[in-house]
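User: My collaborator sent over this chain with a note saying "see what the structure looks like." That's all I know about it. Can you take a look?
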Amino acid sequence: MADFLLYALAAGLVVALVAGPLGTLVVWQRLAYFGDTLAHSALLGTALGLLLMVNPWWTVLAVALLVGGILALLQNRPHLSADSLLGIISHSSLALGLVAISLTGLRVDLNSYLFGDLLAVGPTDLALIGVVGALIAVLLTRFWDSLLAVTVHAELAAVDGLPVLRLRLLQLLLLALLVAAAMKVVGVLLVTALLIIPANSARPWSSTPERMALLSALSGAVAVVCGIGLSLWLDTPTGASVVLCAALAFVASMGLRKVTA
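Assistant: Without extra context I'll predict from the sequence alone. Here is the result:
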């Protein structure tokens, strides 16, 4: 197998395996729009990287972490509607990123940022994705029970002495890390899809959160393998092909569940 295929497969599998458990928490807390907002902010990070002439990966991570922190601090403000706040930040950061990229004067292939360029993943990209994936996995393992408690019932978790605000901030920061890692795999516009589609495919077949996280990770991994194969076969965008395979798996899951119910 060619090296570029091995790099693509490894990067996609790392992202899918950590997106599964994190997506489980996102779906249960109905935080899909939070992930979408962080993903849109990644384009602003890309523009800053081009302007500063540094690796855009680092500026994407910095902007996503900053936006995640702002969301965590503002989401409970009574005078700010959560959906309005998310809409403002999401579209503003996306528009600002597009304007900033146009002002750089550089000829930039936006398709690779918007929809990913998985087959262009190199050794350096794979190393960064691997480190971020390992960090997310370690933090999820360490704080899984606490994050789950906040997801199920935040008020009860607070009564039990858990630092709810810090745990919510941690979850948003984990989402920011995943966005930075997944941008190369599926692109800015499709990151959230890799979070929520496999998790929703696994939900009808899961009796426990842990089972849902495992099945979600497996569903995402299968989507990555099938998406890469589809992209090579039909010469389609790899990130979009991965998400399409995940969507087909969701439809199959719902259909099979309806038949067996």
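A starting point for your reply to your collaborator: Residues 3-189 form a domain with the ABC transporter involved in vitamin B12 uptake, BtuC fold (CATH 1.10.3470.10).
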